[in-house]
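Morning run. Coffee first, then this:
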Amino acid sequence: MKRLIYLILAGIVMLGPVSCKKDDPAPAGPTLPTAPEAKAEHNTKSGGIYKGTFANSSSSGTVKIVLQDGKTEAVVTYNGTTRTLTTTDLSSWVSGDAITGATFTSTDWQLLFMADADGSSFAFGLNLAGTVDFEGVIMKELSTAQVRVYEGTYAGAASGKWNFFTIANQLQGVYTGSSSGYFEGVITGSNIAITGSGSSVTAVGTFTGEASACSGTWESSGDTGTWTGSRKL
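And here it is:
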């Protein structure tokens, strides 16, 4: 797996004026892609498509950054509202150039993104109407490996948000709420096995409905509970 992620940065410095744009309503029942959307020409470059998810104790959302086919935009869904954020920081960028810090904006939403020239490491930060206390994960999609993003919740001895992405047979995500941390795991057929990463959480589960939904149980330091999720990207 390529090097992934980053947690959300605590605040973003605006790199230019913010243009006003009306919120785009979240689509009802979107048809989710069944194959990678990323183009092969960007597999080892900074361009292409990146997908991720983020959450805090009360909020959750997804990120899709599109840097191909003449587009330089970020589509962010947050608490049921979807906006397309644009940037002027990539006007002279071409895929294969490092992205040292591009700010995508839509009124009071900002997303900061950076990536190495070969797309092997990347990071993003969010400031959504003044809210910056998120944790998140993101992954570069390949023409040979689709990234699927899930949002969900966990409950039991602790409760909160349970979000993750999958690529090939691997999984990485975050849980936030009364307890928070990162996790990673492996997928075998429709079965999920999660081990702790920076936390003590472990979990098992299964995908159903052509991997559009999933559920299972978790355990951490003797505490137990259940989790559920559904695919969003």
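The chain has two domains: 48-141, 147-231. Good start to the day.
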